Amino acid sequence: MDPQHFISSGIIELYMAGIASEEEVRELEAAMAQFPAVAAEVEAYRRNMEEYIRLQGRTPEADIKTSLFNKINNEPNLQEGEPVPDQHLQQPKVVSMQETKSLSWKWLATAAAVLLVGSLVLNYVFFNRYKEFREYKDKYQSLLVSQNSILSKSNLYKTRLEQMQESMEIIQDPKVLKVPMPGTKAFPEALATVFWNPQSQEVYLKVNKLPEPTTDKQYQLWAIVDGKPVDMGVFEMGDTASLLQKMKVTGKAQMFAVTLEKKGGALQPTMEQMYVAGKIPG
Amino acid sequence: MEYAATYTEAELVQGLKDRDQKIFSYLYDHYSPALYGVIVKVLNDDSAAGDVLQDVFLKIWRHLDRYDESKGRLFTWMLNIARNTAIDILRSKSHKLEQKIQNLTDDVHLVNNGLSTVQPSTDYLGFSRILEKLTKEQRTLIDLAYYKGCTQEEISRVMEIPLGTVKTRMRNAITQLRNILNK
């Protein structure tokens, strides 16, 4: 039903007189809530009805007021306004335009408050998530770094292990001769070892103890073959010194010796700079 | 009592909520004639009406916290308390319907005016203007429904008119009342 139809239906007049049926009252109250025009029309009727009543007013006797105020002042429970259920105090549902306005305002305020609270809660939740995420990101990055370092260390160990295994295989090979080279008189502390496989002619050097040379010098291994020194190559010191270093090959040798030469090696050994030397056993 | 100022409805409500007796006194002076008029019309009994009026104002004083401005004006709320309280008393007396409505059409207002100790309404002239333009039947219809709380069936029986025409005649009466007041 549209508002105009409602206004002309006659229900408002019956409602004002107080003889509308329950169903009609329900319909009208729904219409008042829905259409401000209907609410305004009901309010206009109500004002007319109240004017009609007011015009029939009569001034009560003065002692009624005196008695009323005596009661209010002398009965403490009345002053406190104790709650007593009374159906007469129930207000009829009157939806005026003003109420619609304030209602929507209240709804808006409530909705805004709810949204604000919701947003605050979400802010809190998301901020916490963000903080967690940031922590995880940091942790992830540090894990990544440590994993990389572990990986590189692990690679390093792997390489070392392989080199060690290789060295072990060489050393354990029964065909390989171990030639210890103790220090000479000039360098009694020095010590190095040659592992030589006469069949494959491979020669490996192990530095046991040699002083670190200056950067312009290098140690050089010599094989003494039939009384003549044969160049077996220069070798590295530093970290590499702990490993077996593969030298040049030779199928024949009676003795091995190490001299300190200029970087890159020399054609003839400098005998004064001979650190270690050892004869092939047997 | 005299008052330097009149109050808006919002000021009245706030004053009453603050238990301001000066405001309550103003409220009484301002609204007791209308409420008393309703009670007298419902009960047709001047001596009982005074007690009921006092009861009604006590209810207003005690239960103002239950008044909700968003649901209607203060006067509407007070009128409903007065009307409902009086109609309840009328019904509790278990009078027959015919007794309840006795003298309804003999206008108490006019009959008693000047004869009893009750002071005349300040709006006597205004009301006479309405009386001239409403038929006696229209006044009876409105008064039976509003002041006696009669149903359509009761109105039909008392006024001896068909039930089906009660609605139509009531609409006409209220519309006529509205036209008079809006002139």
TrEMBL record, chain A:
Alphabetized InterPro entries for the sequence: Anti-sigma-K/W_factor, RskA_C
GO cellular component entries: plasma membrane
GO molecular function: sigma factor antagonist activity
Residue ranges occupied by any Anti-sigma K factor RskA C-terminal domain in the UniProt entry: 108-270
Name the UniProt record assigns to this protein: Anti-sigma-K factor RskA
Pfam families, per database record: RskA_C (PF10099)
Membrane-spanning residues: 107-127
UniProt record, GO biological process: regulation of translation
Keywords: Membrane, Transmembrane, Transmembrane helix
Protein's UniProt keywords contain Membrane: yes
Annotated organism of origin: Chitinophaga arvensicola
Record's keyword annotation contains NADP: no
Source superkingdom: Bacteria
From TrEMBL, chain B:
Family recorded in the similarity comment: Belongs to the sigma-70 factor family. ECF subfamily.
Keyword Amino-acid biosynthesis set for record: no
GO annotation (BP), single: DNA-templated transcription initiation
SUPFAM superfamilies linked to this entry: Sigma2 domain of RNA polymerase sigma factors, Sigma3 and sigma4 domains of RNA polymerase sigma factors
Keywords: DNA-binding, Sigma factor, Transcription, Transcription regulation
Gene3D superfamilies assigned: 1.10.1740.10, Winged helix-like DNA-binding domain superfamily/Winged helix DNA-binding domain (1.10.10.10)
Keyword Transcription regulation on entry: yes
Protein name stated in the entry: RNA polymerase sigma-70 factor, ECF subfamily
Short name of any one Pfam family annotated for the protein: Sigma70_r4
